[in-house]
Amino acid sequence: MSTAAFHISSLLEKMTSSDKDFRFMATSDLMSELQKDSIQLDEDSERKVVKMLLRLLDDKNGEVQNLAVKCLGPLVGKVKEYQVETIVDALCANLRSDKEQLRDIAGIGLKTVLSELPPAATGSGLATNVCRKITGQLTSAIAQQEDVAVQLEALDILSDMLSRLGAPLGTFHASLLHCLLPQLSSPRLAVRKRAVVALGHLAAACSTDLFVELADHLLDRLPGPRAPAAHLDRLVPLVEEFCNLDDDELRESCLQAFEAFLRKCPKEMDPHVANVTSLCLQYLKHDPNYNDHSDEDEEQMETEDSEFSEQESEDEYSDDDDMSWKVRRAAAKCIAALIGSRPDLLPDFLCTLAPALIRRFKEREENVKADVFGAYIVMLRQTRPPKGWLEAVEEPTQTGSNLHMLRGQVPLVIKALQRQLKDRSIRARQGCFSLLTELAGVLPGSLAGYMPVLMSGIVFSIADRSSSSTIRMDALAFLQGLLGTEPAEAFHPHLPTLLPPVMACVADPFYKMAAEALLVLQELVRALWPLDKPRMLDPEPYVGEMSAATLARLRATDLDQEVKERAISCTGHLVGHLGDRLGDDLEPTLLLLVDRLRNEITRLPAVKALTLVARSPLRLDMQPILAEALPILATFLRKNQRALRLATLAALDALAQSQGLHLPPSAVRAVLAELPALVSESDMHVAQLAVDFLATVTQAQPASVAEVSGPVLAELLGLLRSPLLPAGVLVAAEGFLQALVGTRPPCVDYAELIDLLVAPVYDPEGGGGPALAKQAFHSLARCVAALSSACPQEAAATAHRLVCDARSPHSSTGVKVLAFLSLAEVGQVAGPGPQRELKAVLLDALGSPSEDVRAAASYALGRVGAGNLPDFLPFLLAQIAAEPRRQYLLLHSLREALGAAQPDALKPYAEDVWALLFQRCPDADEGTRGLLAECVGRLVLVNPPFLLPRFRKQLAAGQPHTRSMVITAVKFLISDQPHPIDPLLKSYIGEFMESLRDPDLNVRRATLTFFNSAVHNKPSLVRDLLQDILPLLYQETKIRRDLIREVEMGPFMHTVDDGLDVRKAAFECMYSLLESCLGQLDICEFLNHVEDGLKDHYDIRMLTFIMLARLAALCPVPVLQRVDRLIEPLRATCTAKVKAGSVKQEFEKQDELKRSAMRAVAALLTIPEAGKSPSMADFSAQIRTNPELTILFESIQKDSASAPSTDSMELS
């Protein structure tokens, strides 16, 4: 017998003792044993333990009984399934016992067992089997009318079971429904209430047929006409009638019903919104026991005495039997549901609901007040402008008018909250801060005029030591947010009253309070004495106090980690913004920061604080700490902690910029010795910061850099050959190379640097040339150009050498490519001499047999031409007209010239270029048309008001190819950054989108591609037009049979769908709309088209699976409404088989499709109530029983666990 088994055996023996204390202690010890994960019972021990615990359930001592029933929980997971069934059988038998105490214990036992059963989703069938065993016994217990206590206990357990395991009990749903319905007629209120709860859980999981049966039964029991209408249309008028009956409990239930209807069926509730709104407004102020006449003429300020007397008078009216507060709370929650579910009615709600909510801020019942605040916060969140929204002055939008309406309500909100901010109730004050935080976020700057009221409320809560620390921290958090949204001038008059309580919180012993207060102090310094503006407030009266409080925290060594970090950060801001006023305290403060560098826990915040100080425009004297700090920072560059390396490089760069000449050379050399290892392809961001620092130090201390230039250059040249080189690293490398030749004397000779750069191309054996990627040639060419611009006197000679290399018949392809790419950059610096010589060389190169040489020459022709338009552009246009075979390359040159030249210089040639581009369009192939469109787009940017209106004429009269090119050109006018053309473009977008009605497929596809680019990069252009655009977009998602044809391919017939590309473009637009315009979409309508896409072609199904996963996260309620319909296409995809003998690609496509569908299934299962859907439960069971699907599902779950956020997909 094992030790554990022997120990259990001895405990079981003690449980039979006649001494109740022995039995109690033995049961307690058994409980401890069962809670250990390591315990394993053999079959005999299992049987004995189960038997003994069931016996103890009927123990004479109540405490022993309670412990025995608690033991059942951990025991369920430790014994075999048939033993659990034994326990359940015994408990069900006890439930029908004559003894009341045994019945209670059995009820608790069954609930304990049910709560410990593994959920069905884990693949265990135990829960389902046990529930099936219990169900029959519970239904018979409920059906018997003799003992109400048994009925109540059985109904409780049944509710518990249905809420956790409703779907797996599908076979019992019908019998449960027929057992529960009669209980609604029970004479006992408690039985009726519990039956209602159980039916609610059953309704969430049962099939549609049973749900309809239940709904019909309930409606037939209600008074009113028996019209054959939809359930909701029959039900809502009845609930409205019941609201008018004088029964507060019934009213509460009615309003809760409306709330549920609005949340679950917002679209179907549309006809009833007006009536529900008026009922909510009526019952929001339903308070028959309290007569309040002071709605409007409330005094602005009241003394403390009158406040207390007011409170007392309110207390006189409170009544234990008063249920009206529940009605008001239900009305407030219903209003929140109304606002949240109908964002399209927001302008009406701002006129009707918002003022009513503001008037109810004075609500006397705390729970109701919290919900009134909550409803107004929902309103504020709905009014918040969408991401990327810009207030267009020339054209008022709906968002703008909503914000204007809200701004008009701010005085009323502040007046209503004035007294609440000093309320004795902490919860009321917390509600005020939450609401005001939201308001400041939606309307930044709108609270500046009400600072006296707000500051008074904030100081009241911060200084209130009698209350819990939570409200003080909430007040500090609100103050911090306010400093970020309101202008600094608004705080100036209040600083003398505001600073002392904040300082007291900095010194507070509670670490969370101190951390929050330090953050506020940091924000105060940053906001009130900004570095980019002249000081409007003299810091002298405050700087000493702030410095003393912060330094006290900085010096303490026994603080919480968060407080240490905040104290260091706050010190950095204080010194960076006000260091010139610290006087003698500056040096000790800086030395303290250096001291914190030595501590592993505080070194990262200390590095960031030193960076702030070094970057400060106050040019503080940091010499006392440089010799000590630089060697410490040098050691950080060897650490594995990436964040520390990045912060250290930023700090070193800031120090080199501000203190460059004063840096001790020996310390600088110690730092520079660490840098070659950091200039590496393994971490490009670190490499970029290292090269930036090198460029800064080169200008400050060239002698020190000259010593390490060899190894650093070797690493840098290796980096420049990387095909993955980011633009930021390339810019940093250009800056460093320019710095090397720009010092006097130069650290490295110009000619030597050029030779080093081009060596990998000119000497492939020595530099590994053949392996150079295309990107590397561009990088090297940019660096050659950077060196030429740094040494203008050398530029002409360099250009001449490059021209010779490009012309020489002995030059390799690589040398020619590098020469042309370098000329593209150097040509503009070198002057007109080499440019004249270039024309012939570049034109010859366009006929080269090497594609790379042709492309490089084409690029160079455009770039060099941009610097000398009068000479090059007419020549280029003549060549495009005369050389149709080279047209594609010459158009590339024209595109580069249009992009690189100054707009004013291009204006004289705009007409000629425009005419040529549109003349070439009708005969061009698709690739050339795309290039023509880009050229047209760049040309329009030269003179938008003159050229953009011409698109109308081309769209009206042009051929299909021309119309397609025009729409594609518009796409190139959209950038993700603000641009002067945006207002003009916005006024034309509606006309361009009309091309979705064009009969030509290619034009419609180009329009969708342009629309997708607009939605993705600049949604503000199209957001207000979506109402007209969406019907046209949805039209393009439909499969058109007239575009499907059959093509004969040898002995086979192959089906071709000409409309597929257009449909795919439409679904890509729909995905982009989810990212940036969700608030403007009717999700129910949107889902109808997603549903169609789930049954479409492979490419479209892949898109809709991703969309479905996104929708499950963004708006779960409408998705949940139709989960039964959505799951069928997903199931069909996951269980589809590829035909035997199919090619390998077909199997790979099907696997990818299954994986994508399973991701959508996993996303649907994250919606809390999705598992209760019968279809979803059935498919979940199918996944668990199919090994292939189980493996796939588990791998998807692992992937989602490692990457929790759903990244947005680039589709533009």
From TrEMBL:
Which Gene Ontology cellular component terms are annotated? Answer: cytosol; nucleus
* Pfam families, alphabetized: HEAT_EZ, HEAT_GCN1, TIP120, TPR_CAND1
Keyword Repeat applies = yes
- Domain Stalled ribosome sensor GCN1-like HEAT repeats region positions: 8-104
Keyword annotations from UniProtKB, A to Z: Repeat, Ubl conjugation pathway
Instruction: State one molecular function term (GO).
Output: TBP-class protein binding
> Which residues lie in Acidic residues bias regions?
294-322
**Domain TATA-binding protein interacting (TIP20): residue ranges:** 1021-1183
Its BP terms in the Gene Ontology are: SCF complex assembly
| PANTHER family assigned to the protein according to its UniProt record, in alphabetical order | TIP120
Protein's UniProt name: Cullin associated and neddylation dissociated 2 (putative)
Name its species: Ictidomys tridecemlineatus (Thirteen-lined ground squirrel)
